[in-house]
Specification:
Helix content is 48%, strand content 0%. With 75 residues, it is mainly alpha-helical. It has one domain (15-26, 35-75): Arc Repressor Mutant, subunit A (Orthogonal Bundle). It starts with 13 loop residues before the first helix and ends in a 12-residue tail after the last helix.
Length: 75
C-alpha cells in the first residue's frame, strides 16, 4: 500500500510529483520514521508508473536524506 495519494499534473515530471507527494506524507505524519517505504515494484504498480521512474523517486529521497536503503531489509 502506498501511504500517499497522487493526482498527476501535466507539465511536471512524474518523478518530481511522486517525490513531492512522498515528502508531504513524511511531513504530515502519514509516513512515519522507521516505516518501510514501498519498493520500486510496489510503487510502480500502485501508481501505474514506469519502474525506472519509481527508482528515480527512491534515489532522490535517499539523496535528500529522507530514506535509508538497507540491502535485504528494504527502504
Amino acid at each position: 500500500m502506498i501511504p500517499f495519494r497522487l493526482t498527476f499534473e501535466p507539465g511536471v515530471p512524474i518523478h518530481q510529483q511522486v517525490t513531492f507527494a512522498a515528502k508531504k506524507a513524511m511531513v504530515t505524519g502519514q509516513l512515519r520514521p522507521g516505516e518501510t517505504f514501498p519498493s520500486v515494484r510496489v510503487l510502480s504498480k500502485a501508481l501505474k508508473i514506469n519502474p525506472n521512474t519509481a527508482h528515480k523517486v527512491i534515489i532522490q529521497l535517499t539523496l535528500d536524506g529522507l530514506l535509508e536503503v538497507r540491502p535485504g531489509i528494504g527502504t
